[in-house]
Write a structure and sequence with these properties.
Chains A, B: GO terms for molecular function: glucuronosyltransferase activity. Chains A, B: Belongs to the UDP-glycosyltransferase family. The structure is a homodimer. Chain A folds into 3 domains: about 200 residues, Rossmann fold (3-Layer(aba) Sandwich), CATH 3.40.50; about 160 residues, Glycogen Phosphorylase B (Rossmann fold, 3-Layer(aba) Sandwich), CATH 3.40.50.2000; about 25 residues. In chain A, the strands form 2 sheets. Chain A has a 7-stranded parallel β-sheet, with helices on both faces. A 6-stranded parallel β-sheet of chain A has the order 10-9-8-11-12-13, sandwiched between helices. In chain A, about 45% of the residues lie in helices and about 10% in strands. With about 500 residues, chain A is an alpha/beta fold. In chain A, helix 10 crosses helix 14. In chain A, strand 12, helix 13 and strand 13 form a beta-alpha-beta unit. The longest helix of chain A is centred in the last third of the chain and has 39 residues. Chains A and B meet through helix 1, helix 15 and helix 16 of A and helix 1, helix 15 and helix 16 of B.
Chain lengths: ~500, ~500
């Protein structure tokens, strides 16, 4: 045993050393993969044996050198998946009556989750793939619990799981970590979407499943989101995507550098949005004609012929590199969390036009911090765009507050990426993180709120009060009887 | 502004560099100083200008090279302070009836706090010293909020404050950080002592004062204490005192190394306890005669003549160095938090005899983890001591569980000392840590629990229900009348 202790000593005094652990990565497609990819890359660099598990319809593993790919066949086509995704993006620019909007969105989310449920079934019932995965003997599963397949797989393989996420709808992340979250000052994440719970019966079991997460790597940061209670197994890695900027291409560098003291604006609505309505495009272009700044705009829809000279249209733009440029004056964005972190990292104030998902929430936070102004996507006019841009550019408080946010956001004892790697390896070293699991997981609702204790106390107090009252009554009656007797005697 | 941003960039990309900040340290005497001293030393090493403020009756600054001392005169003598401290230590070995015990303890705590209140007044009304402190222009105050003088001083000087502590009585630390703490699974710290609140009227203002702490450096660690909700400005630095062991003196090394495979026991009841009753000393010695282990015992009281050969009595012993020795088999301790962390750091299971303060709580935690056995200080017999020692030595589960605790406790992304330095410097860099302050501080009790919202909702529901009922009644009556009329007509 002494030797055991000594070995443990040796082992843990060389922390951070390569362990060569077996890591199973179960990713979620789309923007969710953007920052998880960074962690996966770093795990590979540090010598871990990483297996990326994905359906044949995606190609997330492409370009990931040193990573093994395990691809499973699914019963839907790439086109079907594409259609479902396209549906989610459609109509973000069109204002529908609230009820129609809710109905349409729920229907689309059902379509989206259904196709993934199908894919997960295809995986779990594929005995060949599952057999291979079982034989691997993984040390840890790294997954985004936004879709439950990774959690189910970890449970099936009995491997500790590390979650990597921005948040879960319906407070599932708070339930999963047993984190208190007083609604009086903790804004409800996705609260506008609580009606999108399409499978309440499945949700209940997912609740129990998601509680088993050993470590929750949260893309959360108090420079962006508001301070709130945390649980010991919640690790904040917000800003993990703020990579060191690469140099711009020569023609882009020439364009933005030529903007002089007025600087330039970075304009993108994210990869999920394809086509902006023509009249909205014109409203923006008309506004851009009237400002001294240059504009780099990621735009993939139809364009009028008279695009002004100070606007450069691109099918894709290096967002992080552009924001890092010293002449970047303003970030015109839809308010996705990745873009927001990049804006904060480089201290660029924002004009925001939220479209869907967590974007309206994100935008609210940034407006509350005084670093952004919002444009309503259903009410875009040249005047409104102009007003928003001029406000943020001319009122220096936006820039100053953004620089303050940047300074606290950048000030880490450990960089988010290193922290994410550390905790993933921690779970490998200790086969989980049981010492961080609160006893609250073992309590039901009544026990958690101490209602059983309170009821017992109330019962005791009431019994004593009742007995006391009875005693008083009894004594009182005795006295009365005696007085009456005395009176009689007299 | 661009320049400002760029400078901020430059500044925060050289994190951890020496800042040369002005740090005012307001320490608390006794064991509280043991670990804070480590942080103060490290701040000096990193080039900060540290001023240690203390009353003339203590000499904490002695031996701290590179630190300026600001000593203020007080209206009590060193002897008076000594007496008050001695009183606190007295009678820990004598069992008094509960009520007498509580009364005596409250009286002693009043004496203890009174003398410190006097000292604090002596400081705050000393215009010369206060004038000098004001002129210094400190960047940060580092203090232990166990006594409120440091907090009051920080408030007076309008300097952000970093707290360094193990915990505060009456849940003051939870109030100060606005940290939720469900009583159903978070054990109440010091709960046995909630009757020691001697100055409730002062406490109320202290509550508000203590909330202003920018960062709370907590000697808390989930290998030792149970996982519970945390707030973003609570930084866990438990185990900060686990220094690298120094080599033992030649004669001590010879003694413990000669213990062979049986190993040796480290026995100390801490620096607060001076004299053990003679019969208790004999009970321990008789037990030690019957075990194969050697014992190194810190003992300052009266000794019988026949101390067995396997026992080495010392007036002071290098606890951390001894526990780090590979032949250390068992730690016989009173359960002070410093000793516990050292035991965990070196993976040595314990036999514990709690005396006062937080020790009974600490011991409960260790027993619950299966790494310690407890002895009742009021019921010490040779048999009980023997039984406890043999249980921990022979049942290998104690050692195994302790090695597990050790492995998670040692596995830090950042070492506790570096973390404490980082956050102290963070407060200097950002003039506080406002972005970590939850909005809960601005809410009253009713708002925090959303009772106002709930009341409004209840009122609306009840109004609707009432109106609905009235409508039904009205319609019902109309119908009845009609039916009655019809009947009449018929």
């Amino acid at each position: 045993i002494k030797l055991l202790g000594f070995l443990a000593w040796l082992c843990f005094s060389t922390l951070g050393a390569t362990l060569g652990a077996k890591v199973l990565v179960v990713p979620v497609d789309g923007s969710h993969w953007l920052s998880m990819k960074l962690l996966v890359k770093e795990l590979i660099v540090r010598g871990h044996d990483v297996v990326l598990l994905e359906p044949e319809t995606t190609a997330l593993g492409k370009g990931l050198v040193g990573c093994r790919n395990e691809i499973y066949p699914v019963s839907y086509t790439k086109e079907e998946l594409g259609n479902v995704l396209k549906q989610l993006q459609e109509n973000v620019f069109i204002k529908l009556p609230k009820i129609t909007d809710a109905y349409v969105n729920v229907q689309r989310l059902i379509d989206y989750t259904s196709i993934h449920v199908k894919g997960c079934e295809n995986l779990l019932y594929n005995q060949e793939v599952m057999g291979r995965l079982r034989l691997e003997g993984f040390d840890v599963v790294l997954t985004d619990p936004f879709l439950p397949c990774g959690s189910i797989l970890a449970e099936t393989l009995s491997v500790p799981v590390v979650y990597f996420l921005r948040g879960l709808p319906c407070g599932l992340d708070e339930i999963g970590t047993q984190c208190p979250s007083p609604p009086s000052y903790v804004p409800r994440f996705y609260s506008g979407h609580s009606d999108t719970m399409t499978f309440p019966q499945r949700d209940i079991s997912y609740k129990d499943l998601v509680r088993r997460g050993a470590i929750w790597l949260l893309r959360y940061d108090f420079a962006f989101l508001f301070p709130k209670p945390m649980m010991p197994n919640m690790v904040l890695i917000g800003g993990i995507n703020c990579a060191k900027p690469s140099p711009l291409s020569a023609h882009l560098e020439e364009f933005v550098d030529g903007s002089g003291d007025d600087g330039f604006i970075v304009f993108t609505l994210g990869s999920m949005v394809d086509k902006m309505p023509a009249d909205m495009t014109i409203a923006f272009l008309d506004a851009f004609k009237k400002i001294p700044q240059r504009v780099v705009w990621r735009h993939t829809g139809i364009l009028p012929e008279d695009v002004p000279e100070n606007v450069k249209i691109m099918k894709w733009l290096p967002q992080n590199d552009l924001l890092a440029h010293p002449k970047a004056k303003l970030f015109l964005t839809h308010g996705g969390s990745h873009g927001i972190y990049e804006g904060i990292c480089h201290g660029v104030p924002m004009v925001m036009m939220p479209l869907f998902g967590d974007q309206p929430d994100n935008v609210d936070y940034m407006v509350a911090r005084g670093v952004a102004v919002v444009i309503d996507v259903f009410d875009v006019t040249t005047e409104k765009v102009l007003e928003a841009i001029n406000k943020v550019v001319n009122d220096t408080s936006y820039k100053e507050k953004m620089v303050n946010l940047m300074s606290v956001h950048q000030d880490h004892a450990v960089k988010p990426l290193d922290l994410a790697v550390f905790w993933t390896e921690f779970v490998v070293r200790h086969q989980g993180a049981d010492h961080l699991r609160p006893a609250a997981h073992n309590l039901n609702w009544i026990q958690y709120h101490s209602l059983d204790t309170l009821c017992l106390l109330a019962a005791i107090v009431m019994t004593i009060a009742f007995l006391g009252l009875k005693c008083c009554c009894f004594c009182g009656r005795k006295c009365c009887v005696r007085v009456a007797k005395k009176k009689k005697v007299l």
